[in-house]
């Protein structure tokens, strides 16, 4: 354990890196996938079960937690870690993305954003300063700058204007964050798909100085090819000695492609959301347990997987409980998906450390190309 926040790269393979982020609440092995606990819970999972999948860190959502149950209440009850019974590191996003995507009534100014809650319509205000205050009340270990997420599609001029305001907000976030030993503030690079704007954003963030740097404004519908096009150059604009976090990613092939391009951290709701809708992610790709082909299949989702869903239950059972609307369906499929995602991260870390990343990626792609096992 340590009393400060630090990052150490232990091995590289091409642009990919593996290492450790050290925090007072424990180490985060990188590349890291962060399960999303939007409202102080990873849906359908107990915290100890999330940890059992191999997760070192969770993500909480400032927007949702400020609305319900409220940051002041969480603070009174001992902070987010105690509140949700997760004593390892927590990263909280700034709330900016949700304000822009979930609130139909909002007013954006240089000062911040006034918006209506999607829960009850009540009026709220978020700015760099209030976002920092709320995240401090929650007690998160990694705090994200408050930034604007422009609605897409947008012109290059609109993206540039938005990015520059986000950089001004980044400075205000840094000033409001203050001196908090053991806690980290991450800046967020913006700039759309334009290299010059991405570089300008990165230079502005480096001039301010952060403990880590995120790549924002991707995984918002632009497609994998465009995302990888940005990741071919954007991580190189950021400091080599600080963590690089790609926000909101993603599918397994997105994750592998991002790690190959130098990304250290990712998050996505996909494993839990897919689990609740009957979708399982395996080394052979996606399985839709709703399909009738599984109704009489005694085999597991993945014979090589050691999660509870695969070691204790058949495809036939998983198909039945999903069709019957039983809660155990979402619980088992979510556990499987999170287990698979963390197994993928462990495989990537080992491959980078051993210098065998190309072979790992080739095997990953070959397995996915085979598709699911044939029906009985």
What this model shows, in words?
It catalyses: 7-aminomethyl-7-carbaguanine + guanosine(34) in tRNA = 7-aminomethyl-7-carbaguanosine(34) in tRNA + guanine. Homodimer. Within each dimer, one monomer is responsible for RNA recognition and catalysis, while the other monomer binds to the replacement base PreQ1. With 376 residues, this protein is an alpha/beta fold. Helix content is 42%, strand content 19%. It contains 15 helices and 16 strands. Strand 13, helix 10 and strand 14 form a beta-alpha-beta unit. The relative contact order is 0.13.
* Most strands sheet: 8 strands, parallel
Number of strands: 16
* Lateral strand order in the biggest sheet: 4-14-13-12-11-10-6-5
Mean of all residue-level pLDDT scores:
96
Tell me the CATH architecture of the largest domain: Alpha-Beta Barrel
User: What is Rg?
Assistant: 21 Å
Secondary-structure class: alpha/beta
Give the % helix: 40-55%
DSSP strand content: 15-25%
CATH class of the largest domain: Alpha Beta
For CATH, the homologous superfamily of the largest domain is named as Queuine tRNA-ribosyltransferase-like
User: Distance N terminus to C terminus?
Assistant: 51 Å
Under CATH, the topology of the largest domain is which? TIM Barrel
Poorly predicted sequence stretches spanning 5 or more consecutive residues = none
Give the count of structural domains: 2
Shape: globular
Supply the number of helical segments: 15
List keywords for this structure.
single chain, 376 residues, alpha/beta, TIM Barrel, 2 domains, eight-stranded parallel sheet, three-stranded antiparallel sheet, 15 helices, 42% helix, 19% strand, globular
